[in-house]
Design a protein that fits this description.
This protein has 18 helices and 28 strands. The protein is an alpha+beta fold. The chain has four domains: 228 residues, BirA Bifunctional Protein, domain 2, CATH 3.30.930.10; 63 residues, Herpes Virus-1, CATH 3.30.40; 81 residues, no CATH class; 97 residues, Rossmann fold (3-Layer(aba) Sandwich), CATH 3.40.50.800. The strands form eight sheets. Strands 3-10-11-21-16-15-14-12-13 form a nine-stranded mixed sheet. The chain has a five-stranded mixed sheet with strand order 25-24-26-27-28, sandwiched between helices. Strand 22 and strand 23 form a beta hairpin. The longest helix is centred in the N-terminal third of the chain and has 20 residues. It is elongated, with a radius of gyration of 30 Å. Bound molecules: glycyl-adenosine-5'-phosphate (GAP). Glycyl-adenosine-5'-phosphate binds next to strand 11, strand 16, strand 21 and helix 14. Its EC number is 6.1.1.14. It is found in: Cytoplasm. Belongs to the class-II aminoacyl-tRNA synthetase family.
Length: 579
């Protein structure tokens, strides 16, 4: 990590923000190379998860009013465990300290008092100053950044901790755009904010980061995914029950569904995601899908599989990081916003044929209930209505008994107005369930860099190389004049301009010897370099040298063919060996 972070800073991938003012933990700026790499990763994500799947895209605000997060459960449940050092005042994630000092892998699923006891039992010291943390309280710390909306303090808002809420709150409108047809998906790529207790490991745990999320709304009783298009995709699964033994399951998406290992909707997106990870150059030897343990799941999820990547350097102990979560959120979000919001968060789904249903109803005689039960009469009427829907047999006798606030009330059946009738229904109101692939773009970028990062030996000696896939490499091609004289500089500029006109991202470099220029491009992952030399300007038809980053091989290519040769190489339609 140290080497990669040093390279990232030196070559303009990413670096800590606001360093002129001392910097602040958890905020990173992407430099010219990193911004381009990140944008390309996002673009490939959009192509695969939004365009290829036919899903909508939206762009919602990052500040949302407090009631949204009361409804979503983030105000109450979006906490991490905080322990403060009495000596130096530094804050730490208590669960991470436990994981570092014991064999416990997911300490965040433990209750806070147990984590406090473990700090004592293992004599854990403050990582900053070494003072003992035993006896220090462990508190729940809410991760949302609070702000005031407008002058004064009249309206509290929060920076969104996940882009998902921007999709859920707009569901009443989005379902109209989908013409009320389930299933439909809505995607969003944007910033999320979490006031992490201890940001760490560069892009891995920051306070401001980019998420790419898809919320797929499905009918829990009607919709089934067609997994056939990804059935043969190979996946490495690490189910919750296998984790104590450390056993992976090497399988395909189709088999995982057939054997009931993964929910079909979640499995479908593991297949889609695997195809996407392959295009951006994730190394599957250092990758797995790990199912959450029940105590580890977020407050909204009924099941979740994390994509995890090992980002350790070769020959070091594995260092697994979570780069995405593929969750089944059930109806949690839309039900909560339906309860708290003022709009309708259900979808009316039409039956193929109208259905005749038996419906039980009550019409209580309030002139009897009022005098008999006083202030409880209205609630007794509601309880009778609920009972009629639930258990019509309860109305077969002379009397019916209902419970209201722990008290039992008995009502003569003839006073309930109980009726039983047949009705024809065209459809029903459904609260859709949500399937959510939630990708952390920054951690994905970090993984792509870590998996591409290599030190190797070439003719000129040792080099550092980023073997980035051409689809995400920040620069498509670098153009050099061998020397900036005898017309080579002018010609190289013209070639660079032509290639830019073809839509390629081109770097021009004429400083230093040619070997150093190749090294610089290898370090930022530029897949191809073009050199204009004496032969280029002296001979007809004009040719240039084309060099491949990974093999360092070089061939002469006619300048007139350069753009199409590069297009074929980038698309994988030609290999360098073919040339
Ligand atoms: N909407 C679901 C959700 O937000 P999550 O597992 O909390 O789920 C999804 O976050 C992804 O966002 C993670 O897998 C991770 O890649 C990224 N992420 C979360 N917190 C982050 C942080 N502090 N810094 C960088 N990335 C983060």
């Amino acid at each position: 990590m140290t080497d990669l972070v040093e390279l990232a800073k030196r070559r303009g991938f990413f670096f800590q923000s606001s360093e002129a003012y001392g910097g602040v933990s958890g905020f990173y700026t992407y430099g010219p190379q990193g911004a381009s790499l990140k944008e390309r990763v996002e673009e490939t994500w959009r192509e695969r998860f939004a365009l290829a799947e036919g899903h909508m895209q939206i762009d919602a605000p990052t500040v949302m009013p407090e009631p949204v997060f009361e409804a979503s459960g983030h105000l109450d449940g979006f906490d991490d465990m905080l322990v403060e050092c009495a000596e130096c005042g530094e804050s730490h994630r208590a669960d991470h300290l436990i994981e570092g000092a014991t064999d416990i892998e997911e300490a965040e699923s433990l209750p806070t008092d147990e984590v406090a006891s473990l700090l004592d039992a293992h004599d854990i010291d403050c990582p900053s100053c070494g003072a003992p943390l035993a006896g220090q309280p462990v508190d729940e710390f809410n991760l949302m950044f609070e702000t005031n909306i407008g002058p004064g303090t009249s309206q509290t808002g929060y920076l969104r901790p996940e882009t998902a809420q921007g999709i859920f709150v707009e569901f009443p409108r989005l379902k109209e755009y989908a013409r009320g047809q389930l299933p439909f998906g809505v995607t969003q790529v944007g910033k999320s904010y979490r006031n992490e207790i201890s940001p760490r490991n560069a892009l891995v745990r920051t306070r401001e980061f980019t998420q790419a999320e898809l919320e797929l709304f499905v009918d829990p009783d009607g919709d089934e995914p067609d997994v056939s298009s990804v059935a043969d995709v190979e996946v490495t699964l690490y189910p919750a029950e296998n984790q104590p033994e450390g056993d992976y399951v090497e399988t395909t998406v189709g088999e995982a569904v057939a054997e009931g290992v993964v929910d079909p909707w979640v499995a479908y997106y593991l297949g889609v995601a695997t195809e996407w990870y392959e295009t951006i150059g994730v190394d599957f030897e250092r990758f797995r899908y790990r199912q959450h343990q029940p105590g580890e799941r977020a407050h909204y999820a009924t099941d979740c599989w994390d994509a995890e990547a090992d980002v350790s350097a070769p020959d070091e102990a594995p260092e697994w990081i979570e780069i995405a979560g593929y969750a089944y959120r059930g109806d949690y979000d839309l039900s909560k916003h339906g309860e708290h919001g003022t709009e309708n968060f259900t979808v009316f789904t039409q039956y193929d044929e109208p259905k005749t249903v038996e419906r039980a109803s009550v019409d209580p005689d309030m002139s009897y209930l009022g005098p008999e039960f006083g202030g409880a009469a209205a609630e007794i009427a509601d309880a009778l209505a609920a009972l009629a829907e639930r258990d019509r047999a309860a109305f077969e006798g002379d009397e019916v008994t209902v419970d209201v606030d722990g008290e039992s009330y008995t009502v003569p059946t003839e006073k309930t107005g109980f009726e039983f009738a047949e009705e024809t229904e065209a459809g029903r109101h459904v609260t859709p369930h949500v399937v959510e692939p939630s990708i952390g773009i920054d951690r994905t970028v970090y993984t792509v860099l870590a998996h591409a990062h290599e030190e190797d030996e070439v003719d000129e000696g040792e080099r550092t190389v980023l073997r980035l896939d051409p689809s995400v490499a920040p620069t498509d091609v670098a153009v050099f004049p061998l020397m900036d004289k005898d017309g080579m500089g002018e010609r190289a500029h013209e070639i660079a301009t032509t290639l830019r006109g073809e839509g390629l991202d081109v770097t021009y470099d004429d400083s230093g010897n040619i070997g150093r220029r190749y090294r610089r491009q290898d370090e930022v992952g530029t897949p191809f370099c073009v050199t204009v030399d004496y032969e280029s300007v002296d001979e007809e038809p004009e040719t240039v040298t084309l060099r491949e980053r990974d093999s360092t091989d070089q061939v002469r290519v006619p300048s007139a063919d350069l753009a199409s040769v590069l297009a074929d190489l980038r698309a994988g339609e030609t290999t360098f060996d073919d040339l």
